[in-house]
Amino acid sequence: MGRSSGAGRPQPAAPRLAPVRLAELRDDASPDFRRGERYDGVRYTRASADGLELSGMDFLECEFAGISFNETQLRGATFRDCVLAEVYAPVFTAARTVLRDVEVSNPRWGSAELYESGWQSVRIDGGKLDYLNLRGSTLTDVQISDCIINELDLGSCTATRVALKNCTIGTLDVSGAKLKDVDVRTTEFRVVSGLGSLAGLVIDDNQLTLLAPLLAAHLGVVVA
Q: Which of 106, 178, 181, 224 fits a 20 to 30 Å CA distance from 41?
């Protein structure tokens, strides 16, 4: 679904994104992560946390560059004022995490299980994700740009001031979601699920044209 301009029309509220500023970080090339610990002001570069049990971890003002989190258990972890660059995880297990003031660039995630999470002021730039599961999450002030996502699951989530910019999405599922100012006008997607939960989604004229047959079928309207 494509792009169009909407000059002169009311514009949705844009995400309010706080820039992440990191200073005086301590480098740790061989991190010894321990479950339940808090890590503050650390830079991790080209390290592996594959398969570790890190549920409930608390990271504050940290930078992750080229870290592998494949099959790492991050359930209930918290990331605040953090930068994650080129994080790799064919299986990313991070349900019920909290991300606040976080910047993610060029992630390479396969199956990303982030359901029932809380995101506030989160930016994702670039990257490729096979499956991003945010079902049941609360998303406030989130922007995802220039990202390829095969399947984005926003089912039953509450999303406010969310923008998908210049993304390519295979399937977008908003079943049971509560949306407000969710702007997808510059994003292309092939399949949309949850047509009864589109209120609060901001689309362009071309997207409306492509959605029209689906909406008609959903409402039982016969076009003859």
A: 106
DSSP the chain: ------TTSPPPPPP--PPP---SPEE-SS----TT-EEESEEEES-B-TT-B-TT-EEES-EEES-B-TT-B-TT-EEEEEEEES-EEEEEE-TT-EEEEEEEES-EEEEEE-TT-EEEEEEEES-EEEEEE-TT-EEEEEEEES-EEEEEE-TT-EEEEEEEES-EEEEEE-TT-EEEEEE-TT-EEEEEE-GGG-TTEE--HHHHHHHHHHHHHHHT----
> How many other C-beta atoms lie within 10 A of the C-beta of residue 5?
9
- Residue range 137-163, pLDDT digits in tens: 999 999 999 999 999 999 999 999 999
CA gap 138, 157 in Å, rounded:
6
Residues 6 or more apart whose Cβ sits within 8 Å of residue 21: none
What is the distance, to the nearest Å, from the Cα of residue 165 to the centroid of all Cα atoms in its chain? Answer: 12
C-beta separation of 104 from 84 below 8 A: yes
Question: Which tokens sit at 77?
Answer: 């972890």
**What is the chain's length?**
224
Using a cut of 0.70, tell me whether the model's pTM lies above it.
Answer: yes
